[in-house]
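Obj: model holo form, ligand = 89Y.
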Amino acid sequence: MKIAVIGCGFFAMNQLHGWKGIKGAEVVALCDRDPARLAVAGKLCSGARTYTDAAAMMADGGFDVVDIATTVSSHRPLVELAAKHNVHVICQKPFALNLSDARAMVNAVAATGKTLMVHENFRWQSAIRAAIDEVRSGAIGTPFFGRISFRSGYDVFSGQPYLAEGERFIIEDLGIHILDIARALFGDATRITATTRRINPAIKGEDVATMLLEHGGGVTSVVDCSYATRRVPETFPESLLEIDGDKGTLRLDAGYRLTVQVDGEERVRDVSPPVLPWAERPWHNIQESVQIIQQHFVDCIARGEQPETSGADNLQTFALVEAAYLSAREHRTVELASL
Ligand code: NAD
Ligand code: 89Y
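Output (holo structure tokens):
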């Protein structure tokens, strides 16, 4: 599978390393408007053609997949450009600026018959995956309550300065993954109620969000996110879980400790992610999930299946983000069906 990557910034480095770890995948073209960033990526993927203009790269072709790792404002034009050139597409989260753009992007790729996956990688973290597998296997019976919690004081702004500048921050940037984990565990939500706060005066958007979801299958979940939480140990970038089912409970605690209790019996597992050779702590958790999601994409194409985090699926995650902001702004519960 020949891959072209657009956007060679902070996060794309993980995706480039991830592709190197996938048998049969090869990055053959790279594009970034910034020649310095392009040069760094070019060193990592020697032999790949380099471009500062995405349209020129697309016109030259010679690849099966475009992997878009730019920030959100360029996602719609780049996804539509890729669709025009009839290639499979991966696009980073947040998928779009708004729900109507997101729907148009899904339709554009669907019309070509090619595959579209959103790089919504937290549900692919191995610790989260271990919890999802336990829940899906029925280990704790039918879940009725879940809490998915991401609370940190880690400085994400030094690596990603744009996060301090947007009107929206934590729900759009990070909450999107945590809401997606809630969907992976409990299915689609029908209603959401959210509150937001900004604690850090140096940023523009909200850095705390607390969300209450009702899922179609009957589960109530609490999704809480904060980048204003100063505590020891710092758990970035771990998402912690508490899930109650009618037969037992599951906890994913700090330090990647997974506990399942059923009928008075307890199973405790260390589900720490490996530190891949190119990865570094504390990002190794996310970095491993990048390689896993990219492998999933390759496997789905080979099998002719839709990725679990397809563009169409991601519309539900994206709608939760939009609904959470609407709920917080208007101090009311939002029905997802109304969007
Ligand atoms: P960045 O600003 O460091 O890099 C983006 C790069 O894209 C820049 O080098 C820029 O020059 C280039 N670019 C922008 N528009 C372009 C265009 N039209 N043509 C060619 N190049 C273009 O941003 P980043 O921190 O790497 O974030 C990129 C995306 O990855 C964001 O959507 C962000 O939310 C996402 N991200 C995801 C995770 C995750 O865990 N999934 C983590 C961090 C960032
Ligand atoms: O951009 C974010 C993401 O997707 O994962 C963590 C992050 O880098 C900072 O919140």
